[in-house]
Amino acid sequence: MILTDDDPMWSRESGGHEGPDWGPDDRELAATQDQLPMGTYLIHKVLVDHPGQMLSVPELIELTGKRFKNAQAVAGTLQGYSAWCKQHDRILPFSWWAGRNGQPTQYAMKPRVAALFRDARNDG
């Protein structure tokens, strides 16, 4: 499923976000994405390269070259965002939806946020 920036699904995410969101004036901050821990950056790159696409844990594992063994490894690796986002006083740049009835958790990055990171990456 691919979401637009204004899709109501974003408001139904499982994780709460507190603090300023990533915006068009954050290009300089976005350029520091290469400072993320390596595993976190691998997942970050997949989310950036699949804007608005809800990716399940198995899809993330596949798209990162099977670098991660399971859902716990993916979730643990995403903790690498915490210090980096806190340093820049920004919320996590992705959303997540907990799996239900045996379904895997899904992750996605809004297209406008993905574009910010993609453009900052391409400028570097």
Features:
mainly alpha; 6% strand; three-stranded antiparallel β-sheet; Arc Repressor Mutant, subunit A; 41% helix; 3 strands; 124 residues; single chain; 6 helices
What is shown here, in short?
With 124 residues, the protein is mainly alpha-helical. The chain has 6 helices and 3 strands. It has a single domain (22-123), classed as Arc Repressor Mutant, subunit A, CATH 1.10.10.
Oligomer: single chain
CATH-scheme architecture: Orthogonal Bundle
Name the strands of the widest sheet in spatial order.
Answer: 1-3-2
Q: How many beta-strand runs?
A: 3
pLDDT < 50 stretches: none
Summing up helix and strand content along with how strands pair, one would put the structural category as mainly alpha
Radius of gyration: 14 Å
Q: H/E element string?
A: HHEHHHEEH
Largest sheet report: 3 strands, antiparallel
Number of domain modules? 1
Top CATH class:
Mainly Alpha
Could you characterize the architecture of this molecule?
With 124 residues, the protein is mainly α. It has a single domain, classed as Orthogonal Bundle (Arc Repressor Mutant, subunit A). It contains six helices and three strands. A three-stranded antiparallel β-sheet has the order 1-3-2.
Show the helix and strand layout:
Elements: H1 27-30, H2 38-49, E1 55-56, H3 57-63, H4 71-78, H5 81-87, E2 95-97, E3 106-108, H6 111-123
